[in-house]
Amino acid sequence: MNEVVTVGLTQRQFDALVDFVFNVGEKNFRRSTLLREINAGNFPQAVSQFRLWDHCGGVVNAGLLRRRDAEAEAFDRDISAGMEAV
Known about the structure:
Elements (H helix, E strand, L loop, with lengths): L10 H14 L1 H5 L2 H7 L3 H8 L4 E2 L2 E2 L1 H20 L5
Helix pairs in contact: 1-5, 3-4, 4-5
């Protein structure tokens, strides 16, 4: 993550992304629109990208949906609060 994320993140945002990358894989993350939006500073648009990764075998998976919702919520929490990156 430290090699490909070029903008500052809060600890909570970093943690949410680590969880995401661990689940979807580094190669998928490197090619993702989620990473492009983050590096462009478009954090609100990035939040919506988490939820697009909720499919398994072409079908929405309830467990993945819960996981993506939790990651998106954690990533978004500091955006909504206006907290500075550390």
